[in-house]
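Researcher: Please generate the 3D structure of the following complex. Treat every line as part of one assembly.
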Amino acid sequence: MAASKFAQNEQKLSGWKSWGLVILVLILGSILTFKVLEPVKVLPRIDLSPGFIFRDQFGEKKTNEYYRGKITVINFAFTNCKESCAATYEKMSALQTALQASTSSYIQTMLITISLDPQRDQAEQLIAASEAYSLPKTVIYWDFLSGDVILTRYVVEGGFGLPYFNPAENGNEGVDYQIEFEPRFFLVDGWGIIRAEYNTEEFEVEQVMSDINLLNQEYQYSDGPGRMAYEAAHLFGCYP
Amino acid sequence: MSAAETNLPKKTLGWPKLLAALVILAILLAGIPLLVKRLQPHQFSGMLLQSPDKAADFTLMSHDQQEVSLSDFRGKVVAIYFGYVSCPDICPVTLANLRLARNLLGEQGNDVQVLMITVDPERDTPEIMAEFIAHFDPTFIGLSGDLNQTAEIAIQYGVYFEKQETSSVLGYLVDHTATVMVIDPDGYLRLVIPFGTTGKEMAADLKYILEH
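Model: Done. Output below.
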């Protein structure tokens, strides 16, 4: 009698164990499936974009807080640039055209060019650059920014980690000096976090548009129940 | 089927067993959401970063006039906030939330160090900072440097600040980014907490960083 009761209890316990095992397998299976299939893709949150205060081509003050809530594509140049900036301006222009044609954007995307030559790049020069490269009538705004010499260095070199050599800062600029730098582009989200970084070769319009679309999807679907999937995608590193 | 089997008395659930079954069912029903909650990824109120580099180190003067570096706090979670003493609203609210978060963490709160870097070094002398900080939490540390030094550090932490002349009795105000940056015990910038996050939400995020 006691033996049969023991056997019954054993059977019950083994039933519970089986259920526990099934649940565990289901949970691990879901995690594995998520990791392998990556149903949600996200761009990594690489680092904080630096804080800044500059003035745009119209003399308006622009801070990093102004761009909060917008996706921004940031690059660096100077208006008197002979060769090194040509490709970067062209690529930014092409991106602006693509964004203008795109209908899938959920939040506003803006382009920003930060001047590495704040001594020469005043509003007049910035307006000329804007007129030369930016689309005339567009909702995809392209801000050309310039500001204080020291703060520019802190932002570009300290914040974005992009070294450059400006001879004017040492007082030996001569006539028509050029600034030495390696062109880079940064994709920054609405929270002020760098989500992608490109050099000139990597900056293909299709690639950047695809990255911007991923950000738009994250904004659109990561609210409410979708947020869990997006946080999981960040934790599991579901990057494109 | 044997006669013995057919003659077995019909089994019915007695009240005690039924009650026990209901209690177990209720526990299971209540337990499932808890289990799901336990297994789901932590819902951050801040933004979790996958920073590849260590947070920029800095050395500033503390409110008790000691040189303090970020790297002095390796092994602790550090919450950095840029604010100033005459700040009318945002800074006191954020510091109060940080105090609440630290308190909610209990013992674990001892592993959280709050640093407030002043964006108004002209007015925020060590004495003034010491008095201000003491209102919130005696473990908080107020830090100051000169304007250039402060700007260099602030920029790297995604913070801008600018003096704004006003007619206020407080004199000028300082516009500034109001996020809290969280550095993990290994010195990596892991979390950016936006203004408006409650102390309870901060505590949950800090707990995650402490435990992962």
